Amino acid sequence: MINNIEGKNSTRNFGLRDKIGYMFGDFGNDFFFIFASAFLMVFYTDVFGISPAITGMVFMIARLWDAFMDVAVGRFIDSRPATKNGKFKPWILRFAPILLVFGVMMFIKIPGMSNQFYLVYAFATYIIWGSLYSAVNIPYGSMASVISSDPVERASLSTFRSIGASLAAMVITTVVPMVVFVGNKANSSRFFIVAVIMAVLAMICYTLCYMLSTERVVATTQKKGNLLVSIKGLLKNKPFITIVCASLVLVIAMLLTNSLNTYLYKDYFKDTKALSLSGFITILNLLIVAPMITPLSKKFGKKESASAALLFSAISYFLLFLIPTKNAYLFVVLSFLGNWGYNYFNFMIWAFVTDTIDYQEYRTEIREDGTVYSVFSFMRKIGQAIAGAMGGLALSMAGYVAKAPQQTAEVAANIRKYATLTPAVTYFIVFLIIFFLYPMTKEALTEIQAELERRRAAR
């Protein structure tokens, strides 16, 4: 059962403070998540000298482990009582410092060690970091459903969360390539310095998230029931299954493209400065797309507007695949246009998740925010595992040679092909899933929210 305590004198009303606080949470998360997604493979292949195929296997195994950690953390938190500061956000500050220490350790190269040592060290630090990331990210993601019960306010939280992720991506993809590459080659000491700076900034963001956000929807503590029963219930939740499938494909597209883009600018365009420019102008995408979210979702609905946006991005990247260019800056502009639709959907994804949590309560009259969110995160980690393996596989198929002074023209052309065709195909698949299978239309969502409010008022 849940009690909605919004509006009581003891709790301030939902407002901009909550949105900014929630934004800082993902800002902090993505300082390291995007940093690792975009550059850890390069660090492993070019600094540690680990082959792309083995690097992909390390990513896959670690992410599969993380997926099970997500569910374990979600179930554990659902069984814990709320504190005076909330049920979810205290866990962020409890685990964030340890998480960031291991984040820095991932980018340390101890000189003079064997190849086997570097492989074991990479695997150990990465899997521990991933486990700790679950302990921070699962409570953070679950918070959205208890900060507010209003679907419009939740959509705004999703937008601000995505703004935080986009700001982190802009900082990382703009600044990091200019710092960590010397003569288009990865520099281990510079990677370490950047990792330390990222850790400090992330800790500041986590603290601001804790201080500025307020949990208002209070759930009575649920005993940990049979996980299989909960999962069986989720399997009957069609909106949840649909959004999980869409997110699974989207995560594969995002992480695989991020990994390949580093090699694309480094080896195909031979211009890592253009990679920095690509990261910088993502802020323009943010400024263009973010104001569209609320008016378009209100007028057309989340499902309707998001599916149209995805189709636009799929077509744009397919054109990039068909019309190759050797001009890095032209490619930056064209990919900027192609990412409009992807960014729109990415802004909306967390609002879709909170709606599926409501649908689960609508069906079962039991609210398990942490469990539902953790199962959703479990499936995203499966996608991340697949993307990690596919990233290494794609580089191996392209013929990439770790630590080679220069890649051949054929290898570079193959990297360009994978970096453009991957988002084209995956965005189109996500469009098909959302448009044809996701049942939560604007009308259906309004009906479900009205029924939940009626039930809560009757308690």
UniProtKB/TrEMBL annotation:
Assigned keywords, A-Z: Cell membrane, Membrane, Symport, Transmembrane, Transmembrane helix, Transport
Superkingdom of this protein's organism: Bacteria
Pfam families (UniProt xref): MFS_2 (PF13347)
Residue ranges of the TM segments: 20-44, 91-112, 118-138, 159-179, 191-213, 240-257, 277-294, 306-323, 329-353, 382-401, 421-438
Subcellular location field: Cell membrane
Gene Ontology annotations for the cellular component aspect, listed alphabetically: plasma membrane
SUPFAM superfamilies cross-referenced by the UniProt entry: MFS general substrate transporter (SSF103473)
GO molecular function: symporter activity
GO biological process terms held by the UniProt record: carbohydrate transport; sodium ion transport
InterPro entries given in the database record: MFS_2 (IPR039672), MFS_trans_sf (IPR036259), Na/Gal_symport (IPR001927), Na/Gal_symport_CS (IPR018043)
The UniProt record lists the keyword Repeat: no
Annotated membrane topology: Multi-pass membrane protein
NCBIfam families in alphabetical order: gph (TIGR00792)
Protein name per its UniProtKB record: Putative symporter YjmB
